[in-house]
Design a protein that fits this description.
This protein is mainly α. It has 19 helices and no strands.
Length: 398
Amino acid sequence: MRRPWWVVVLAVLVGAFTAWRGARATASAESTLGELLAEPPTTAPRALPAKNTPQVRPGVATPTTLAPLLAALAVEADAGPALLDAGAQQVTSVALQHLDEFLTQNAAEAARVVDQYCDDTKTLRARDEFKPNARQHDAAVFMEGRADWENGRVGLLHLPDPLVARLKAPGWQSAGSELYAGLDFGWMKQLLEFDHWSLSAQGPLRDGRPSTFVDAPLPSYVMLLHWARLRLLKGTHEGELEQATIEVLHLADLCASGGTLLGEMMRASSFHGLVRETWAQAGRAPPLAPFSDAERGRVRAAAFAGTYLLYPGVPNEVRTKALGCIPMRCAALQEALGVAASLRAVRPSTEADANWLREQQPCDAASADLLLRAPPLEASRLADLKDGALAEWMKALK
């Protein structure tokens, strides 16, 4: 029996509301990070919330989000086939068509710009931060019980709320030693023994039930950034700013070594910006050159553009060339693999894309295997795919 039209409409609205509520909850939980990161020109596979509404550059068309269309696919996933009458089927068909159009457009754009991308990232690839290391000494066991995690697990490095509020408020740089009194910073010096931090070797990501790549519990990089602030403040007061800088930048490198765009962005936008600002206030040049403001913007653009160059549907020869040019290869490869695996529910053909990406020797093979075993993401949550995203990130890379 044909369902009344209002049933179909209600089902679609419920799906859209569910997607909106999930996105709003995520944005609320990560609002602090939004204040720390510079605004990206568009959203990314693991969305980085911006403090304000992103401003589109003059002459760049506003990307069309897939959220309203993909939200309709929740009807099929949540309400079951009983509600898929002719009206709902038509909406689902339109959503899938838009998804296919996005992947087709992105693949064509990737083939067109990959050579330019390789030229534009030469100077970034020369930075020491992006040179591969041996990955012989993993900080996973050391950091598991110390770090806070996004799933709510509290570690030994958890700072009290009043102190966090003080560090987030203007003027914390002028505080005295009372701000860090009683805190033990010895763990930061101990971290110098490690050359990477695998998120899948030890911790909630390995121990928990399989989750989609956007739900995978990550360390609270924001809490670690607060410790970096305190370490630099202590170093300034006690005449050991050089040593404090070495420890903070090494912590930043370990955060980026987990193979996530979020970790890469925290290193470039937050940790490096903090070091540069601290030395500027001291009127001195840092012994280890952090990313400049211009470099931080280019790192962000190179990271996101690199991920889109590896997306499902991009020809393998294009992806192979891109992999040789992406400065933050670990993160781009892992994030693209997560997107490919997550699309399996609506486009089974992306299984081949995910398998191909896994064969390209990800930096953290265990994390890559977890992504391949993770459940597909409901289509209603794939709102981060935006038309023209690669082209816009390429403009920002200039």
